Amino acid sequence: MSHENWLGLMIGNSRLHWAYFADNQLQETWNTIKRDSLRELEDILPPVVSNYLKTAIPLYVASVVPSATRLYLQLPQTIIIDVRSIPIQGIYKTMGCDRTLALWGGGCKYQFPCLVIDSGTALTFTGANENQELVGGAILPGVKLQMETLFFNTAALPEVEILEDFIPRWAKNTPNAIQSGIIYSILGGIKGFIDDWLEQYPSSSIILTGGDTILLKQYFAKIYPFLADKIIFDSDLIFYGMKEYKLNI
């Protein structure tokens, strides 16, 4: 496409993730909640995004919720991203487009081999080697989903959230015990995957992205400072993947 100004939209499990590119350079990003109609969507969009949509600049859309994509097909400028054209070898049929785009964006910006850890509704690990071949990955519930699981499936445990204030490992009350159990288990799990990956690919880039990037970055800096120095924290990998997709189709 010749257009250098465009919008990117990643339809996630819980939110919509928007980005605006000018001269094919990322300028701004926004997150909004989902809506069932374009009119309802326009009511909650930041005015600047709504204005961009009205100018009919290209809108590149990727989605992990196929049913939610139909809404944007009503816009004439919508271009649905086909991740099958992304040149990472070994991508399997059911692999999420968010993981594929983030891996492609991370490898293109920070080099291959590359391990992408995406901390959203799900916490995912996705790695590719120096030949841009998928090595594999893993999926588990993310921070918020683990919190909600305890709250909705137990009778006595309260609803809590992980705060940016440091939580000690050994808690003396129930809310802190839940917070500690989840955050330290997640951090330990991430460390285990990184350690194993670096044994195989010691020169690999390691990138942490997704909605909990800032939260996990703060905890990593305090608990595993030497490992934190090896991690790139970048919440915009999916949009870099979209940019590379657009420039190469």
Write up what this structure looks like:
The structure is a single chain. The chain is of the alpha/beta class. The protein has helices at residues 38-44, 47-54, 66-69, 97-110, 143-153, 174-200, 213-223, 225-228, 237-248, and strands spanning 6-11, 16-22, 25-32, 59-63, 78-80, 114-119, 122-128, 134-141, 205-209, 231-233. A five-stranded mixed sheet has the order 3-2-1-4-5, sandwiched between helices. Keywords: ATP-binding, Coenzyme A biosynthesis, Cytoplasm, Kinase, Metal-binding, Nucleotide-binding, Potassium, Transferase. Its EC number is 2.7.1.33. It is an enzyme of class 2 (transferase). Belongs to the type III pantothenate kinase family.
What's the gist of this structure?
Its cofactor is NH4(+); K(+). Helix content is about 40%, strand content about 25%.
The CATH topology of the largest domain: Nucleotidyltransferase, domain 5
Portion of residues in beta strands equals 15-25%
Computed structural class: alpha/beta
Can you give the helix content as a percent range? 25-40%
Provide mean pLDDT, rounded.
Answer: 88
Number of structural units classed as domains = 2
Q: What is the first-to-last residue Cα distance?
A: 8 Å
Active site: 98
Subcellular location: Cytoplasm
Cofactor: NH4(+); K(+)
Keywords: ATP-binding, Coenzyme A biosynthesis, Cytoplasm, Kinase, Metal-binding, Nucleotide-binding, Potassium, Transferase
